[in-house]
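User: Could you go from structure to sequence for me? I need the amino acid at each position, not a summary. Structure tokens:
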């Protein structure tokens, strides 16, 4: 934005607010948009000085700038500068207390700022729990976001009805989740996994991670497949790490390669039979739905995973420390994220083509997910593994970079930098079209899987903790919403069409899909903003969730 195009000071907050919201929305929906569409203010020293001197008037603006920078792709240094600037101002605003704002007044805004600056970052937050937070915020405040001069206006004629639908939807999801979790526990019990006698019992953790990570229309079968796969991966990984002898591990891996459990006994037999049950179920379902047999592909991907566990087990027990490249080549497979997302993607709509399930080379987004998951795990679990006499990427880095000036902090710094770049690239591949030959639903599942791992290993190893996730699990599945009492939901009379219309400031009108309640969203032009500076009410994050 040039000096001539720069808005006058009174409209600067509105313009930045509008641009940052538009940037985030467009990126989230796969549109290529330059960061300078909202980072233009960084080129104007007078604006930066004005914002720093009157930062309390820019509280909601900086909040949205900070959230927009969550969607940073590789090489976008202007977004890093904008994020740093927004974070500095939000910290100052939080310490001063909010007195006024040039764009919006937000109830409990300190809580929102704290969530962004201190709590889990967006990439580690799960959609289902985020939905709960917004529902409870909206229910317990008559206005969630009251803007003085927002660039758009959302007027909802059935606001209470929408809140009732949101509450009912959340409660409906909880009821389904409780039922599915109980069924999953019965499956684990029936397969002998619950009483296997070693390792981590993470049935509830695995199911919670699957259900809470996204609001995509994944049906019960997909959730169950991923959860069962995650449970099996956890138990089998523990068996290879600590329980089984090298001979037992070799026999089990060979049995998975031949897909024949004859001669297996004890824990090996239990693991193989549970795996066979899962793969048989997925094969039959895919044959019924898609008309093709994916049994060999599923078996191959599982054998690849078991083989990587065997390699790591042998290295650990012989004391062999691989090179960094060797370690990561095996470690990105042994973390088994591809074993979760690719088979499950065969049941999405649109689904993963059969040829993509076990290709000669995985797509870039899949390889990025595998690498990022391994680095996240190793960054937060190296101390535990060091105490157990195991090695991971930290110890491998230390071996390849000896010397008095190299310590663990150097290794962690190197991994963090590597992780940050791979995370940005993964996000770009997940949101943008044309980078991977995968359906969008499949790419979104990759992103959801990454967010789960980021949640587990953001600032510690929450997956191995028996207590840290209890509160989140209860909120996601068991505890009812804390909302004000709502009137009974009324059915709309008759089969009348409900029209949803968006009026853009260019005067164009777009008809949106039919819904059961009607509202009008208006994009307000700068001229209208100058003429109408009264407070308006809008609802943040209008979102429909599907079972």
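Assistant: Here is the amino acid at each position, in order:
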């Amino acid at each position: 934005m040039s000096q001539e195009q720069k808005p006058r000071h009174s409209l600067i907050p509105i313009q930045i607010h509008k641009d940052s919201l538009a940037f985030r929305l467009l990126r989230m929906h796969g549109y290529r948009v330059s960061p300078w569409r909202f980072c233009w203010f960084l080129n104007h020293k007078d604006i930066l000085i004005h914002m720093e001197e009157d930062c309390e008037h820019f509280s909601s603006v900086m909040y949205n700038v900070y959230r927009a920078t969550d969607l940073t792709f590789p090489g976008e240094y202007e977004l890093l500068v904008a994020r740093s600037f927004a974070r500095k101002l939000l910290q100052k605003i939080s310490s001063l207390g909010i007195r006024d704002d040039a764009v919006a007044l937000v109830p409990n805004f300190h809580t929102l700022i704290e969530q962004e600056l201190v709590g889990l970052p967006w990439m580690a937050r799960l959609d289902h729990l985020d939905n709960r937070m917004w529902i409870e915020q909206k229910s317990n405040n008559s206005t969630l976001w009251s803007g003085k001069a927002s660039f758009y206006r959302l007027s909802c004629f059935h606001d209470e009805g929408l809140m009732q639908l949101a509450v009912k939807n959340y409660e409906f999801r909880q009821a389904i989740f409780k039922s599915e979790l109980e069924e999953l526990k019965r499956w684990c019990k029936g397969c002998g996994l619950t009483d296997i006698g070693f390792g981590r019992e993470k049935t509830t953790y695995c199911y919670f991670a699957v259900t809470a990570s996204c609001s995509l229309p994944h049906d019960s079968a997909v959730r169950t497949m991923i959860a069962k796969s995650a449970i099996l991966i956890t138990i089998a990984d523990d068996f290879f790490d600590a329980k089984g002898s090298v001979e037992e591990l070799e026999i089990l891996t060979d049995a998975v390669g031949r897909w024949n459990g004859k001669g297996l006994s004890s824990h090996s037999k239990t693991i193989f039979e549970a795996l066979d049950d899962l793969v048989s179920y997925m094969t039959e379902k895919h044959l019924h739905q898609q008309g093709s047999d994916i049994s060999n592909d599923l078996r191959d991907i599982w054998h690849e995973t078991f083989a990587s566990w065997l390699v790591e087990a042998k290295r650990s027990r012989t004391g062999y420390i691989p090179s960094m490249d060797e370690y990561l080549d095996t470690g990105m497979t042994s973390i088994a994220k591809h074993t979760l997302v690719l088979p499950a993607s065969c049941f999405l709509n649109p689904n993963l083509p059969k040829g993509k399930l076990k290709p000669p080379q995985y797509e870039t987004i899949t390889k990025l997910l595998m690498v990022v998951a391994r680095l996240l795990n190793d960054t937060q679990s190296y101390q535990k593994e060091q105490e157990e006499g195991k090695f991971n990427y930290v110890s491998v880095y230390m071996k390849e970079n000896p010397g008095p000036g190299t310590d663990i902090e150097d290794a962690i710094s190197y991994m963090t930098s590597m992780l940050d770049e791979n995370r940005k690239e993964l996000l770009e591949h997940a949101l943008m079209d044309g980078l991977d030959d995968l359906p969008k639903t499949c790419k979104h599942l990759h992103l959801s899987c990454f967010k789960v791992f980021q949640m587990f290993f953001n600032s510690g190893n929450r997956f191995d903790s028996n207590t840290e996730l209890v509160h989140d699990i209860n909120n996601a599945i068991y505890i009812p919403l804390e909302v004000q009492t709502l009137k009974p939901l009324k059915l709309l009379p008759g089969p009348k069409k409900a029209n949803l219309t968006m009026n853009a400031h260019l005067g164009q009108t777009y008809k949106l899909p039919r819904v059961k309640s009607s509202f009008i969203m208006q994009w307000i032009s700068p001229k209208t903003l100058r003429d109408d500076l009264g407070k308006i009410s809008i609802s943040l994050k209008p979102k429909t969730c599907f079972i």
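One structural detail worth keeping in mind: The first strand starts at residue 104 and ends at 105.
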